[in-house]
TrEMBL record:
It comes from Aphanothece hegewaldii CCALA 016. Coiled coil: none annotated. It comes from the Bacteria. This is DUF1348 domain-containing protein. InterPro entries: DUF1348, NTF2-like_dom_sf. Pfam families: DUF1348 (PF07080).
């Protein structure tokens, strides 16, 4: 059986670890790698999109990172219970015209016993910014 430690029930330390692992994975911008953190029947809401399943997650991420170029994300633990974690986040990206954005949001996560995420709900707002207003800089090889 697949497993993705740390496993629920979460402590403050393991919840923070889970959030950092998610941030690190999403910053790879690798849809295959990121999708493996979710159950095969994971239920998602991302903005106004609703879908179910790891294959749909992978398809979504491919579309996302095809549009949101040079994506860089920071997540912060907001709260947690035994099998749920809530995070706030912000990320920066630009479109193919060079317009930069900072996106702000909140996610609610619910985990299966094996540590894979079985439910994710994300609310996100985008703010156009100037490139000079960027907060997150990184090596483009990351």
């Amino acid at each position: 059986m697949e497993s993705k430690p740390p496993l629920p029930p979460f402590t403050l330390e393991t919840a923070k670890t889970k959030v950092q692992m998610a941030e690190d994975a999403w910053n790879t911008r690798n849809p295959e790698k990121v999708s493996l953190a979710y159950t095969v029947d994971s239920v998602w809401r991302n903005r106004s999109e609703f879908f179910t399943g790891r294959d749909k997650i992978r398809e979504f991420l491919v579309r996302k990172w095809h549009k949101e170029l040079d994506y860089r994300l920071k997540k912060e633990l907001w709260s947690f219970t035994d099998d749920r974690i809530s995070v706030k986040f912000e990320y920066e990206w630009h479109d193919d015209s060079g317009q930069w954005y900072r996106s702000y949001g909140n996610e609610q996560w619910e985990f299966a016993e094996n540590g894979l995420m079985k439910r994710r709900e994300a609310s996100i707002n985008d703010l156009p910014i100037l490139e000079s207003e960027r907060k997150f800089r990184w090596d483009r090889q990351s």
